[in-house]
Amino acid sequence: MIAAKVLSSMLWAMFLVQGVYASTLHRGLGPEPDSLDIHQAQGLPAIQVLREIREGLTTFDASGNIVEGVASSWVVLDDGKTYRFELRDNARWSNGDTLTSEDFVRAWQRALSPATQARTASLLAQVVNAREVMSGEAEPEALGIAALSPKSLEIRLESAAPWFLEILAHPVSYPLHKDRQDSPLQAAVNGAFMIGDTTLHAMIRLQKNPHFHAAASVSLETVEYLPIEDPTSELSRYRAGELDMTETIPAGRHDWLKTYLGDELKVSPYIGSFWLGMNLQREPFKDNVKLRQALSLAVDRKVIARLVVGAGELPAWSIVPPGIEGYMPQAAEDSELEKEKREQKAKRLYTEAGYGDNKPLVIELRYNTSSQHRKIALAVSSMWRQVLGVETELLNEEWKVFVNHRRQGAVTQVFRGGWIADYADPSSFLDLFRSDNELNTTFYKNEQFDRLMDQAEVLDGEMRMQRLERAEVALMKDMPVIPLYFYVSRHLLKPYVTGYQANVRDIHLSRYLGVKSTNP
Description:
Layout: H1 2-17, E1 24-30, H2 44-53, E2 58-60, E3 66-68, E4 71-77, E5 82-87, H3 101-112, H4 130-135, E6 145-149, E7 152-156, H5 164-167, E8 193-199, E9 203-208, E10 222-227, H6 231-239, H7 254-261, E11 265-278, H8 289-297, H9 301-309, E12 314-315, H10 339-352, E13 362-368, H11 371-388, E14 391-397, H12 399-408, E15 414-420, H13 427-430, H14 447-457, H15 461-478, E16 481-492, E17 497-498, E18 514-515
Parallel strand pairs: 1-10, 13-14, 13-15
Antiparallel strand pairs: 2-3, 4-5, 5-7, 6-7, 8-9, 9-10, 11-15, 11-16, 12-16, 17-18
């Protein structure tokens, strides 16, 4: 068996030298996508694939900046509340049909209609009548999006949204072909690639879309995404030559990889936060803020970030990460205390919450299958036990099961959470905790927080950021989640892969990548 694997790897390398695989890129994906329906997809793996096979009015360039997508141009009117887009004349679906403004109107109405509402529908909440449509108080036709002509589209917002152009690059805002909307694997798409064939838990093969408006600039003919939940397994397959690019690296291997693989390791800043969520609609966390604060104070973020994860991450005491222009993240109270004093306060709050040596807290901590998530869960549970005497049961679940449990909240107590910004603005993180947000898996409800978020919607500039900062202060007092660290992007990349550019959004569309043959 070992000899066969070695031979396979040697053959693969030989074929590469001959240029056979020069038009195919093999990428790690992380967990299996939860859905490839643009209105059901929620996890990053699904969003990553959807960005390859579909495109919105805007998209990302190789550096992660917002650029024209289906839209060739646009104007912003009415103090930022009206957008008018002109679509590309050569915008087509993968079956050759012309893509029109009506395809966007149809998609957005479906995304916000109660019967078919997208899991990320709240991203479009700024559109006129969006909230009323989502609640069933208005018909989908009342939504503030209109086809002015087959190639002209107007979108009206309730108030100016500085991040709106980024939302238009998110799958929830993509167009839909009028046919076969209920079959995402067979539906017509409009991105640089289209789905070839898939093997559950093994491979998603994408093929170049000849009808894509920029097809001439796409060098790859095929992209094969391999869903691999375990980063250690992904590393093994990368070293065996089965992958050209990994989704991540194993925890604690940063220094080793830097020593032995050198420039193949790519580590860059990233707008994302990792936390543990607590279900506030169930015991023991319902109406018990002191218990939530005690668990937070008992966790040593420096150990988690530097020793458990160990790839340049920063310890986190806030939800919003650093690096967003004009915003100062609001760290939780007592974040500056020395470790000993934090633990002393944690013990006091734990006792005041009704727990102690004679009545230890017994809780479940859920996480999706990942060696790194397991290491983090083990480290946190060990800290809780050592500082407070908490007894923690660790529950490992396959991604789709985990996401379903987290969303429903029927069985969850503590769970792995986090967020990668949909757009470079603090509201991308803070909106998750609005009481009416479907993605609010902690079931947090605070009228003051909601009011501050509402006020921020009608403000701009410094005043808006001040309201958002006050909202985060309220959030961190209530502690519905325990921030652990701020992300960095971590990939391994073969030297022959071209076009890769590090960026804070960690978006690397395959349309900009290539595989350089080693032929002279």
